[in-house]
Design goal:
Blueprint: E1 42-45, E2 48-55, E3 86-90, E4 107-116, E5 122-128, E6 131-132, E7 134-139, E8 142-148, E9 154-157, E10 165-174, E11 194-195, E12 199-205, E13 209-216, E14 223-230, E15 237-242, E16 247-252, E17 258-264, E18 279-284, E19 289-294, E20 299-302, E21 305-308, E22 311-312, E23 315-320, E24 323-324, E25 329-330, H1 334-347, E26 351-354, H2 361-370, E27 373-377, H3 389-406, E28 412-419, H4 425-441, E29 446-451, E30 455-457, E31 462-464, E32 475-479, E33 505-509, H5 530-544, E34 550-553, E35 561-562, E36 575-576, H6 589-603
Helix pairs in contact: 1-2, 3-4, 5-6
The structure holds (2S,3S,4S,5R)-3,4,5-trihydroxy-6-oxo-oxane-2-carboxylic acid.
Length: 606
């Protein structure tokens, strides 16, 4: 039986299905874990209301609820039913959908019927944009896939399992925090659970264009490097067309189904924040055509500067979580992306640091259209078990999935491998393996990590940081909360930095908490006032003038966001209040400070 199992990176962490004969093979490190550009395929969305069972004590698997049985004979009964109970929106987190699930961490079973029409010569895949955090997928009563990692896609081929007409899919979702998970036991954002992104039934030809990577050469602004991988190990012709550039390039795949080529182009207009030019691109094989828009740009480092298309560019950045504060839930749609990115753009940014995990494709694709450079990272966020090989394999898998999904997005300028880690041999080996994993797939971005160990040295009277790992990075980033977690040791006018002097340095977080509308003493942190936050911003902007290798700043954070870390009963109530914009969308005083700062940088041409 043909049963190709394009399997999720972490499948091997969970016992696999009996009967899925190819399933146990580990994912091929050199192959994409899923088809690239799923939105450019022939698909049916399986979004909508799914039936759900909340399984606090994890009994559902024992009861085989995925078999969805109903009593037929006199003495038969089942203590579950997907009919007549809770219904949850997909995509969506469960926490925001009913008050009982606000803090829920455990298992929820999702199920739905869908119609399929399997056809000769077509292959079918179930594709999940993201399920938070771990899941097993069952189709028509049998487990067909498993995945761990809440922010990246996975797919499973169902060609030989689909029935004509009615099919029943069940997803067992669990978001329990564990020490070996990524992120691990505690993190400063809401642990949303659920099927949080689009679910699709994708139909492809028998042999299809599985993956391609089309980008500008790092060193030549008129050379495009392209590689294409077919779904099968066949030698065949594939074609890349960029009509506007009059490119029509034929490539022959080798026996493993791969081809690559470099070709010169004339009059290419490069993508940049000021000119976010995208080109229609078609990738065609004998049976398949996939199209999308791709932009071409160079990003590099020269000494302490970051260059975009050869031009020194200061990163005017901001961060946001994948959350719509007013809805108190995960962002997942095109409309959500518009809300988040338009508020970022209003601040005057040319970059967004997507905190602290890969965000949905709507956001990434819209940022590209709007001319916003992206820093995208995996949730290696404090508290990660660097000694654990399993955790390391998961991190590598997440990084691969993030890069494979978005490496054709020229807006992505930075891949972030970690946030706030402490030096140790184990940490270094772990992060080094991530850099190796990333660079094996993509060398057209800058690799970065954020650190929080810069400190004021009493002897030198400078801010310093000693972490040799920074040498392995293209860009060094530091989170530093002067005026909030750290009192000022000197006046901001004397706060001179001497950190990673010969590399570009981004201040990747700074800020402090303020409750919107609260006025108070601008020198008292505990006033939780907009006035204090405003002064803190002014002080930090002053300090930035004394960081010689400063290549960008990214305040923490655009919106107040939900976090169980934050207990203060009147000022926080489960919200991190460091937003420049309140949970209700109102701009705080510090927003205007930052806005003016970015305007002045912009008009100085940096
Ligand atoms: C940090 C973290 C960020 C937190 C922030 C804070 O250093 O990187 O995830 O939310 O501080 O508000 O404390």
């Amino acid at each position: 039986m043909k049963y190709r199992f394009l399997f999720a990176a972490f499948a091997f962490f969970l016992p696999l299905v009996a009967g899925a004969e190819d399933a146990a093979s580990c994912p091929d490190a050199g192959r994409a874990p899923f088809m690239t550009n799923v939105y450019g395929r022939d698909y049916t969305l399986l979004n909508g209301k799914w039936n759900a069972i909340v399984d606090l004590y994890d009994q559902g698997r024992k009861m085989k609820v995925y078999e969805n049985r109903t009593a037929k004979s006199g003495e038969e009964f089942y203590e579950y039913s997907f009919e007549g109970g809770l219904r949850l929106n997909v995509p969506g987190d469960w926490n925001s959908q009913t008050p009982e699930l606000k803090y829920y961490e455990g298992t929820v079973w999702y199920a739905r019927h869908f119609n399929a029409a399997p056809a000769d010569g077509r292959r079918q895949f179930l594709y999940f944009g993201a399920v938070s955090y771990r899941c097993r997928v069952y189709l028509n009563g049998e487990q067909i896939a498993a995945h761990e990692g809440g922010f990246t896609p996975f797919q499973v081929e169902v060609t030989d399992r689909l029935k004509t007409g009615d099919n029943f899919v069940v997803v067992e979702v669990n978001n329990r925090r564990t020490v070996d998970a990524i992120p691990a036991l505690a993190f400063d954002w809401w642990n949303y659970g659920g099927i949080t992104r689009d679910v699709m039934l994708v139909s492809t030809p028998e042999t299809f264009v599985e993956d391609y990577f089309i980008r500008l050469d790092n060193n030549s602004p008129d050379v495009i490097n392209a590689s294409v991988t077919l779904s099968d190990a066949v030698s065949a012709a594939v074609r890349i067309e960029i009509p506007e550039l009059k490119v029509s390039q034929e490539l022959m795949t080798d026996a493993s189904g791969r081809a690559s080529a470099s070709f010169k182009v004339k009059r290419l207009q490069r993508w940049s924040p000021d000119t976010p030019k995208l080109y229609d691109v078609l990738v065609t094989s004998a049976q398949d055509t996939v199209r999308e828009q791709i932009g071409f740009r160079n990003i590099s480092v020269d000494g302490t500067q970051i260059l975009v298309n050869g031009r020194p560019t200061f990163m005017r950045s901001i961060s946001f979580h994948e959350e719509i504060p007013q809805r108190r839930g995960r962002a997942f749609s095109q409309a959500d992306a518009v809300m988040l990115l338009s508020e970022a753009q209003a601040l005057g940014v040319n970059m967004v640091r997507l905190a602290h995990y890969p965000q949905n494709e709507y956001t990434v694709r819209l940022a590209e259209k709007m001319g916003i450079i992206l820093w995208q990272e995996i949730p290696i966020w404090q508290g990660i078990d660097f000694e654990d090989d399993g955790t390391r394999a998961k991190a590598q898998g997440m990084l691969r999935e993030m890069i494979y999904r978005d490496r054709n997005r020229c807006a992505v300028g930075f891949w972030g491998v970690a946030n706030e880690t402490k030096p140790s041999d184990a940490r270094n080996a772990f992060l080094t393996s991530l850099l190796e994993t990333g660079k094996a797939i993509d060398t057209s971005r800058l690799y970065v990590a954020a650190f929080d160990l810069a400190y004021f040295d009493e002897e030198s009277r400078h801010f310093e940081m000693h972490d040799d790992f920074t040498k392995k990075l293209d860009v060094v980033a530091v989170n530093k909360y002067m005026g909030w977690y750290h009192p000022w040791p000197v006046d901001p006018t004397e706060a001179v930095w001497d950190v990673a002097q010969d590399q570009p340095l981004i201040i990747s977080e700074f800020g402090g908490e303020a409750l919107y509308g609260q006025s108070g003493d601008r020198r008292m942190a505990s006033s939780w006032s907009e006035d204090y936050q405003e002064q803190l911003y002014l002080d930090n902007l002053e300090m930035f003038r004394h960081i010689p290798n400063l290549a960008g700043v990214s305040p923490w954070v655009l919106f107040d966001f939900r976090s169980p870390y934050r207990f203060h009963p009147t000022n926080q109530e489960d919200w991190n209040r460091k937003g420049l914009v309140s949970d209700q969308g109102y701009r705080k005083k510090a927003w205007y400070i930052m806005h003016d700062y970015y305007q002045s940088i912009k008009s100085s041409g940096r």
